[in-house]
């Protein structure tokens, strides 16, 4: 199941990279819950859809450095650049913990910090 969940997250991320919000949302449950620790909580697919429409004006650059899966959870570690409506990019580092139910993403706990410099990627910890 863990490897299947990783493949689902990779496919969902590929949809986002193509600017296909609905394709991404097809991998989420209707009652999906996104928790951005210290910031906001989005309840339900419609709330996520509205958030994506304002935050992902153009597809974000998402570099996943590690995907770790166990049971119903997949943890993604990486760096993200999101451009605003004026084309100005903002860089972030993140750790997303996704919980799956029935082959779909039901919950996200996102630890996201704005970075001034892009992090170096390394497979060594």
Write a concise keyword list for the protein shown above:
alpha+beta; Nuclear Transport Factor 2, Chain: A; 3 helices; 6 strands; 47% strand; NTF2-like_dom_sf; SnoaL-like; SnoaL-like domain-containing protein
Give a structural overview.
The protein has 125 residues and is α+β, with helices and mostly antiparallel strands. It has a single domain (2-115), classed as Nuclear Transport Factor 2, Chain: A (Roll), CATH 3.10.450. The chain has helices at 2-17, 21-25, 45-55; strands at 28-36, 40-43, 61-70, 73-83, 89-101, 104-115. It has a six-stranded mixed β-sheet, with helices on one face. The protein is globular.
Set down the secondary structure blueprint.
Elements: H1 2-17, H2 21-25, E1 28-36, E2 40-43, H3 45-55, E3 61-70, E4 73-83, E5 89-101, E6 104-115
Parallel strand pairs: 1-6
Antiparallel strand pairs: 1-2, 3-4, 4-5, 5-6
CATH topology: Nuclear Transport Factor 2, Chain: A
Q: Quaternary state, please?
A: single chain
Q: Helix tally?
A: 3
Order of helices and strands: HHEEHEEEE
Protein name: SnoaL-like domain-containing protein
InterPro entries: NTF2-like_dom_sf (IPR032710), SnoaL-like (IPR037401)
Organism: Chroococcidiopsis cubana SAG 39.79
């Amino acid at each position: 199941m863990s490897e299947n969940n990783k493949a689902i997250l990779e496919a969902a991320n590929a949809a986002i990279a193509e600017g296909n919000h609905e394709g991404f949302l097809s991998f989420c449950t209707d009652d999906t819950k996104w928790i951005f620790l210290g910031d906001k909580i989005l309840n339900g697919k419609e709330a996520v859809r509205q958030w994506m429409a304002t935050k992902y004006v153009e597809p974000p650059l998402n570099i996943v450095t590690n995907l770790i899966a166990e049971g119903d959870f997949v943890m993604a570690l990486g760096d993200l650049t999101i451009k605003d409506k004026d084309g100005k990019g903002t860089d972030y580092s993140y750790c997303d913990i996704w919980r799956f139910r029935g082959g779909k993403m039901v919950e996200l706990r996102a630890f996201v910090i704005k970075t001034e410099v892009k992090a170096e990627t390394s497979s060594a910890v």
